[in-house]
Write a structure and sequence with these properties.
The structure holds two protein chains of two kinds. By secondary structure, chain A is α+β, with helices and mostly antiparallel strands. In chain A, about 30% of the residues lie in helices and about 25% in strands. Chain A has helices at about 15-30, 65-85, 105-120, 135-140, 160-175, 220-225, 280-290, 340-345, 345-355, 360; strands at about 10-15, 35, 50-55, 100, 130-135, 150-155, 160, 180, 190, 195-200, 205, 210, 230-245, 255, 260-265, 300-310, 320, 330. Chain A has a six-stranded mixed β-sheet with strand order 8-2-1-12-18-17. In chain A, a hairpin with a 2-residue loop joins strand 10 (about 195-200) and strand 11. In chain A, helix 1 crosses helix 9 (about 345-355) and helix 2 (about 65-85) packs across helix 5 (about 160-175). Chain B is mostly beta strands. In chain B, the strands form two sheets. A five-stranded mixed β-sheet of chain B has the order 2-1-7-5-6, with helices on one face. Chain B has a single domain, classed as Ubiquitin-like (UB roll), CATH 3.10.20. The interface between A and B is medium-sized, with 15 and 12 residues.
Amino acid sequence: MTTAARDHDVAVIGGGLVGSAVAWGLARLGRRVVVVDEGDLALRASRGNFALVWVQSKGLGMSAYARWTVQSVGLWDRFRDELREQTGVDLCYQRPGGFHLALSEVEMQRRADLLARLQAQPGMPEAGYEMLSREQVRKMLPAIGPEVVGGSYCPLDGHVNSLRLLRALHQGMQALGVAYVPQARIERIERRDGGFALRAGAHDLRAAQVVLTAGVGNKALGESVGLDVPVRPQRGQLIVTEKAAPFLHHPVVTVRQTDEGGLMIGDSQEEQTDPVVGPAILATMADRAQRMFPLIGSLNVVRTWAALRVMTRDGFPIYDQSATCPGAFVATCHSGVTLAANHALELPGHIVRGELPADTFSTFSARRFHVPAAA
Amino acid sequence: MFQRLPEADAAARVAFTLDGQPVEARVGDSVAAALLAAGRSTCRTTPVSGAARGPFCLMGTCFECLVTIDGLGNRQGCQVLVRDGMKVETQQGKREVGR
């Protein structure tokens, strides 16, 4: 299949949460978009994530990331409503406020220190963080066990059904006319005639702009369009139990009850590149969750899995535009759920105008990594 | 719908309760088999849509015969032998946590 350059304004590489949100947003602004998606052998972080829409503790070392996160959470209601109106899919987005629980005084102090350092940074947005005592936590989470000494709370935190989010974005983008090319791994991207020529298996595609949203795959793809994308995979393991009657009405950063009742327990952070599960980590996760909520000990586990986060050295996202290949962009992060509203409603307008404005995006450029290492 | 084979019918009696009502079974019956023999073809409703479900595979694979046994939810009825005095309850929708 060959398409002429005029067929597509933008080629989005990667059909996960980042790519499909950007593609949906671009199509909503009238762009003709093609999404090239690798296929079922891809790493598929968007199908393995923990589905939090989360603000708490993000941005230590980069207040711009905290502002970007709070902005996205502010757009989430509108984003959810628009997707539901268009596709009929209920994303089950809830923002009841979320917790990070401490199982010892040491953990409690460490948490308080972290939030104090976070809030002391210049340019931090108002997020309403609070450290809560055990009794205060218990009013909102009556099921906590005796080892919980307290925790931190942020009213902006929530969660969503992220599989429905991915489905709604795919359904929505295709309804807006986005061409979806699945099972196609990009082999080559070249500058040609002021645009880009892409080869993916039997597909030859032409587009005026290209947006890389291929997760860990962005690193290799970026090299062909003059973008440095230093990302690495970081493993997270997850557990889900059978469905239970609602008892946990606020998500905790490592334990949440889904809209359908299953309890998700996550998520480890391991410097591993294989998405495989192991009993040692899973047992530790399950043990901590059960110390937080002893009642869950009798629930049956129905599935465990691992997925690979898309990580940068500092943990913050990269949004960048190529200096040598104008029209090439990259968007990569490990918070494709939280940031989906920004990727759908905020980022596409800048891509349409052909430039990421420096005031918001220069901080997110990979140029931040291009400094000599300290001697 | 189900009838006992004559040999099986000769086994000793065992009494349990289903949602508080007395039911008679035979020694060696699984909970699921006892429910079917007692004429109960459904034992629960599903957690999401609320559709009725009953014992199906009777070999531990399909998880359709889930019931609450002696206070513990989501037990596979086909994998538990009926005991005298056992309290079996049908489940409506989601299991309650801690039960």
